Amino acid sequence: MACTPQNITCNYDPGSINYFTGQVEQTAYNYLLNQAACIAFVVVFGLSAALHLGQAIWSRQSWLIWTLTAGAVGECIGWSGRLWSSVAEHWNPADGGFYDIDANGTSFLMQISTLIISPAFMAAGNYILLGRIIPILGSKYSFIHPLSYTIVFVIGDLISLVIQAVGGGQASAADNLEDANKGAKVMVGGVMFQIVVMAAYSMVLVLFVYRYKTDRPLRSRQIQLFTWWPNALRTRRFKKPSAPMIKNRKEKRGSVVTAGSPYTTTIEDEEAMAAPARVGSGLTDQAFLVADKEGRGTGKSEVAPVVTTRTGGFGNNGEGIVYSPREVRGAEILLWACAASTLLIFIRYVVSSSL
Question: Are 310 and 277 in contact (CB under 8 A)?
Fold first, then answer.
């Protein structure tokens, strides 16, 4: 029955108590949306997505696109859905009076799916980021090889993402409230699995920070999982060399010099080139690398070793890589940013799973 002034079941007082339930009936959000806040979050995450995409292209770090950029895009879509709901939200006087968003229930499904799934992409970015930070600050403080635990946590993140996507699909395709609730429970299950993964990651992160800040290097061999990982599927930074080589190049010419030169560079393991050893020099390997990089105190004449500060980009795990103090300070800042981001994502998951 349509609402008319004569219909006593209609309530024309917005935000008042429903005649039949005795309480204020909200929409599916259970609170009134703040339109200004929705606009602010759309702008913030939109800018974040644009900045991360630009950073990924400029630095040639493709992993930023499918992690942090994808997560920011998802958040932007989700908050756009909430903005849509806030615009459509209104007071319906029928049936005792309640807040309604009419046919725009699509906006609710749009935001709930993307806002729950998006943090998983950002968590994956943190997993990879820590794997790039550790080699700069010191692999000796991490009891697990950076590539190993990055693979473990990213796989766990993908599993939780698939579970959440399945639940979101079920909720979106549901024809009734019961089926929608079943999909929501599946999504919550994926969130709970993600919480377990993030808790394990947080333990690794805290342990590394503790060892680094207190200068407690490992006394045992670093754990390296996935030694069976096919070489064809490895990233360029971690490919195995085809054959051990001993080679040198003349400075600024690139010509190859045979073994027996006073400077030698060897490939000791699968990760990267080891530090070049100066035969007859009083300098340690690390000191020699720094001195050679600055062109002083090495006693070299016309032959120089292959001293490379990068062989695979940011956070190369090679033991012979020399990082400047500025790069180390930058890695420390990123480490704290990674810890803060992980904490906020963890809180976000706990809150969403309790709703």
Answer: no
